[in-house]
Design brief:
Elements (H helix, E strand, L loop, with lengths): L2 E2 L5 E2 L9 H25 L2 H11 L5 H17 L5
Antiparallel strand pairs: 1-2
Amino acid sequence: MSGSCGADTPVREKWKARLSDKKARSIAAAITHVFRILSATLQEVFDESAYRRFLIRGKLNSSCRAYAMFLKEHEQERSRRARCC
């Protein structure tokens, strides 16, 4: 404690967090890694990665026609899968 505020109430010193540059970079790298994994997961969930792979495999540019072809192929694959129960 460093003094009083005038009403005989002690005043606390402000706590200043100080991180070394190395530790700050390490934390930033970890956060970046987590966001990259989250982004990749969401792209897989919403078929963005599958569509990108389809375009690369077919050497196509993204377009309405290419997306329609992707949806048709994707639906055919889903209908061929064996269903349990």
